[in-house]
Amino acid sequence: MWEKLKQLKEQYDRLTEQVSDPAVIADTEKWRAAVKERSAIEPAVQLYERWLANEKTVAECREIIEDGSDKDMTALAKEELSSALAAGEKLEEELKYELLPKDPDDDKNVIVEIRAGAGGEEAGLFAAVLLRMYTRFAERMRWKVREIDIGRTDLGGVKEAVFMITGKGAYSRLKYESGVHRVQRVPETESQGRIHTSTATVAVMPEIGDLDVKIDEKDLKIDTYRSGGAGGQYVNKTESAIRITHLPTGIVVTCQDEKSQAKNRESAMKVLKSRVYDYYKSKKESEYAANRRSLVGTGDRSERIRTYNYPQGRVTDHRINRTEYSLGDFLDGDLFGMLDALALADKDAMLAGGE
Q: Beta partners for 179?
């Protein structure tokens, strides 16, 4: 680990010289590449520099203690040594995490899909709660949310919601949200006060650019149709809604959020690229069907990554056995503690696996 950190420090110093070199600055593409590479390793290098400074403090304190000629200085050095050793252990742990392999998709925007699962109309209402929860979290992060395709129920719930969240590191924060979310609460229509259990599935995928996945136009079947709506004078009388089918995989994407057919096609293609990328990435790692089940499940009540219990005011993530007793705040977008804990558990698992 220390040899790798030493090499990173040398690389960082070399890149620092490059980004201030007039010849490199004149070549915009080369300069941007150097800045990007430098930024990627900067957190690890800064931690390493703090560790080096702490090690220097440890060495100086031990030198004073070994000399022992000044009792007051020796006593102070012993106290400082104790603090420095503790700080060194913490820094070493942070460095181990920082050197773990980075997910190349972490900095990307995300496409989020929410679908009502088991539980009928109550599942649709819960899916709407999740849609608001992620929207509020994005607002707290100062990210942008754009709806792509939202299918509503008669009671104001959501059958299916597809939307994009744009913001640096969106995928790194939200990728652990994929799976089955379970709610336990008394529906407003329940006269006996009985608790019902419903589910909704969430899939979080990175937004994919043209360089990440190539889609041939001849592999696409594109249909247009009229957008659904409440009718009246504002009903969409033109066929602006888009349905795109990717023939090799059978993946179908629809978009009717925009009034313009061109904009709907653009939005649908973004979702399609993400789904196709996810399909082939999953297939490469294992079998797609098995991976998809682990990502979003079937929606059965028995499957879940998280439970939202209204009567007890708690939310429990079953993957890390973490419970928070602030359900209201959580549903209002305060996901920070849970997401941090999930990210840390993932890193711990990677360390334990020797990756």
A: 202
In the prediction, which pLDDT does 318 show? 93
Share of the chain above pLDDT 70, in %: 86
Identify the DSSP state of 245.
E
CATH fold group of domain 2-98: Methane Monooxygenase Hydroxylase; Chain G, domain 1 (1.20.58)
Q: Give the end-to-end CA distance of the chain in Å, rounded to a whole number.
A: 13
The answer as to CATH 3.30.160.20 being correct for domain 217-285 is yes
Nearest to 165 by CA among 330, 296, 335: 335
- What's the whole-number average pLDDT of the chain? 83
Write out pLDDT tens, residues 17-62. Answer: 888 888 888 888 888 888 888 888 888 888 889 989 999 999 999 9
Give the pLDDT score at 303.
Answer: 63
Element (H, E) at 186: none
Note the CATH architecture for domain 110-211+287-351: 2-Layer Sandwich (3.30)
Average pLDDT over residues 93-122: 85
Q: Report the DSSP beta bridge partners of residue 110.
A: 165, 206
- What per-residue confidence (pLDDT) applies to 295? 43
The predicted pLDDT at position 62 comes to: 92
Ranges of beta strands (E only) in 108-248 are 110-116, 144-152, 158-166, 179-185, 196-206, 220-225, 241-246
Nearest Cα neighbor of 329 from 172, 136, 113, 123 is: 136
For the chain, the structural domain boundaries read 2-98, 110-211+287-351, 217-285
**DSSP output for 292-355:** HHHHH----TT--SEEEETTTTEEEETTTTEEES-HHHHHTT--HHHHHHHHHHHHHHHHHTT-
